[in-house]
Amino acid sequence: DADVTQTPRNRITKTGKRIMLECSQTKGHDRMYWYRQDPGLGLRLIYYSFDVKDINKGEISDGYSVSRQAQAKFSLSLESAIPNQTALYFCATSDFRQGPSADTQYFGPGTRLTVL
Amino acid sequence: SQKIEQNSEALNIQEGKTATLTCNYTNYSPAYLQWYRQDPGRGPVFLLLIRENEKEKRKERLKVTFDTTLKQSLFHITASQPADSATYLCALPSSGGSYIPTFGRGTSLIVHP
């Protein structure tokens, strides 16, 4: 079984709809992240969480919200989807408890979201 | 914030040659630097981490160097194979103690048989 899973893997929705992307991990890591990736723009950080009670905005948080329901679960919501939120979304985890230089990122398989 | 520069043009090389990819950064010198591989439509996969006090790190056919004076890391793949074709990303942690990573946009490597 994959260590970091994302659901759904693909989603097509319409402008104005509320969308939730879910991420689960079995690695026991403390940190979780949400990124979006657009062609030519690379990975951009949306939100990150150090633990269940510590959630922080990333570079491009406008239009998104998150929830860390448990150490293993981190959800990303688009309250009212718009076409320019069409992108590939990745969840990632890392284990900062081993020290910063062990804090490598483990990515999920991604969710391809299309907003019409 | 850190600015990371990776060559946006694809690197095309012949099988068996050494591929060299560059990652340049501005501002502060990070405590370490990481390299990831990303295949189309898939999540990045961690390859190597090099710390600021290390000049060079090797793993099988991979070699990474880190020059904090030049603010540059080089990523080498020796005896390259078509299966090495992918996009390679470098990532640096933020300053201030949180170590949140910032990723470069990546360089596409294409190895021709």
What topology emerges from the helices and strands here?
The complex is a heterodimer of chains A (116) and B (113).
Chain A lengths: L3 E4 L2 E4 L5 E7 L5 E8 L3 E10 L2 E4 L7 E6 L2 E6 L8 E8 L11 E2 L3 E5 L1
Parallel strand pairs in A: 2-11
Antiparallel strand pairs in A: 1-3, 3-8, 4-5, 4-9, 5-6, 7-8, 9-10, 9-11
Chain B lengths: L3 E3 L4 E4 L4 E7 L6 E7 L6 E7 L4 E4 L2 E6 L4 E6 L8 E8 L7 E3 L3 E6 L1
Parallel strand pairs in B: 2-11
Antiparallel strand pairs in B: 1-3, 3-8, 4-5, 4-9, 6-7, 7-8, 9-10, 9-11
Which keywords apply here?
heterodimer; A: 116 residues; mainly beta; 7-stranded mixed beta sheet; 4-stranded antiparallel beta sheet; globular; B: 113 residues; 6-stranded mixed beta sheet
Give structural notes:
The complex is a heterodimer of chains A (116) and B (113). Chain A is mostly beta strands. Chain A contains no helices and eleven strands. Chain A is globular and about 45 Å long. Chain B is mainly β. Chain B is built from no helices and eleven strands. In chain B, strand 7 (62-67) and strand 8 (72-77) form a beta hairpin. Chain B is globular and about 45 Å long. Classes of the chains: A mainly beta (116), B mainly beta (113).
Short recap of the structure:
The complex is a heterodimer of chains A (116) and B (113). Chain A is an all-beta fold and 116 residues long.
The major beta sheet of chain A can be summarized as: 7 strands, mixed
Q: Radius of gyration of chain B, rounded?
A: 14 Å
Multimer state:
heterodimer
Share of β-strand residues of chain B: over 45%
Question: How many beta-strand elements of chain B?
Answer: 11
- The percent of residues in helical segments of chain B reads under 10%
Q: What is the general shape of chain A?
A: globular
Q: Write down the secondary-structure element order of chain B.
A: EEEEEEEEEEE
N- and C-termini, Cα separation of chain A: 33 Å
Mean pLDDT of chain A: 94
Count of individual beta strands of chain A: 11
Shape of chain B: globular
Task: Tally the helices of chain A.
Answer: 0
Return the structural class of chain B.
mainly beta
